[in-house]
């Protein structure tokens, strides 16, 4: 398995953060939770394909001043693995992002959070099918425990509510987005040995190019971007936090601990999402929130133990 080279040392706090995989992955989950909450809030106001395309164009332009020297130096290594990098761009940026934003035009937050909790299973399946990497018992126990915590939060402690959930085409699309991102996560350890800024700049730029025809098509149908304060705030958030920072953190987290140990951090997304609802929307905290948070935290700790996966 090819593990990417560690980036050059950064000064002070940045260097310490760069070597804290659990903190990096937790921040990634926080930023992605905000992305889901915001995307659902602006559904019908901001076109999903255009939002996806602008998101990656903005991230690419933010990264380019810092990445271009590394891109020039690493171009031979990138070019040698071009098919893999295009696949990473398609699955981790274009398909995953566009499908999730499009899905949130149709599905409810409850359904999206429930489907999101299955993310680690998609990573495990792809890792097994492609590379024969099996979950350890600790990883399986951790995923199961944290999934139980997610369900406790989403279903408000009432398992009977699971039978009342109705799935629609948005749910299928959201599951498709997770399937694509699971493939991206499983393939990440096979990426070429480059500086992390080279990889993220290339894949964001390539992802934006892959989305551009669909954004043009969306514009031609009359679904255009409304330039107002809500749109501006949405674009600023999605470019900086769930795009630029989250993918840098996620890629580094996988490089440090591997995809199967990183995957349970998906379960923190619905946890942070429900916490945002409590803090920002005035929802009242309940006992099931505390029980769910404790189960998710326990599951992440169990699954992220140092033992390596079986092959």
Descriptive report:
By secondary structure, this protein is mainly α. Helices cover 74% and strands 0% of the residues. It has 13 helices and no strands. α2 packs antiparallel against α10, α2 crosses α12 and α3 runs parallel beside α10. The protein starts with 11 loop residues before the first helix and ends in an 8-residue tail after the last helix. 49% of the residues are buried.
Summarize the structure.
The protein has 13 helices and no strands.
Largest sheet report: none
> What is the molecular shape?
globular
Estimate percent helicity.
over 70%
What are the low-pLDDT stretches, counting only 5+ consecutive residues below 50? 1-10, 307-311
Q: From the alpha carbons, calculate the radius of gyration and give it in angstroms.
A: 19 Å
Q: List the total number of helices.
A: 13
Question: Which class do the helix and strand fractions yield?
Answer: mainly alpha
Strand and helix map with partners:
Blueprint: H1 12-18, H2 21-41, H3 48-80, H4 82-103, H5 109-116, H6 119-131, H7 137-154, H8 169-187, H9 196-220, H10 229-257, H11 259-262, H12 268-280, H13 287-303
Helix pairs in contact: 2-10, 2-12, 3-4, 3-9, 3-10, 4-8, 4-9, 5-8, 6-8, 7-13
């Amino acid at each position: 398995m090819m593990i990417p080279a560690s980036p050059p040392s950064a000064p002070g706090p940045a260097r310490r953060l760069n070597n804290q995989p659990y903190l990096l992955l937790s921040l990634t989950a926080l930023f992605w939770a905000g992305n889901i909450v915001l995307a659902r809030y602006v559904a019908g106001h901001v076109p999903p394909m255009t939002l996806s395309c602008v998101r990656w164009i903005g991230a690419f332009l933010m990264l380019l001043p810092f990445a271009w020297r590394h891109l020039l130096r690493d171009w031979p290594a990138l070019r040698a693995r071009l098919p893999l990098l295009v696949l990473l761009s398609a699955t981790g940026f274009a398909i995953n992002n566009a499908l999730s934003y499009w899905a949130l035009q149709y599905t409810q937050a409850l359904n999206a959070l429930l489907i999101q909790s299955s993310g680690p299973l998609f990573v495990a399946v792809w890792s097994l099918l492609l590379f024969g990497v099996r979950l350890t018992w600790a990883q399986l126990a951790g995923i199961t425990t944290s999934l139980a915590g997610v369900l406790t939060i989403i279903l408000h402690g009432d398992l009977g509510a699971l039978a009342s959930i109705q799935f629609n085409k948005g749910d299928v699309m959201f599951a498709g987005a997770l399937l694509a991102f699971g493939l991206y996560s499983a393939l990440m350890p096979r990426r070429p040995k480059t500086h992390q800024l080279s990889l993220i700049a290339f894949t964001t730029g390539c992802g934006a190019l892959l989305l551009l025809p669909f954004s043009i098509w969306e514009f031609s149908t009359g679904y255009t971007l409304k330039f107002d304060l809500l749109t501006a705030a949405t674009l600023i958030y999605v470019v900086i936090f769930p795009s630029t920072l989250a993918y840098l953190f996620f890629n580094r987290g996988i490089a440090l601990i591997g995809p199967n140990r990183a995957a349970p951090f998906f379960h923190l997304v619905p946890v942070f999402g429900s916490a945002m609802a409590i803090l920002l929307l005035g929802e009242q905290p309940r006992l099931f929130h505390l029980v769910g948070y404790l189960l998710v935290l326990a599951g992440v700790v169990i699954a992220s133990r140092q033992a390596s996966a079986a092959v």
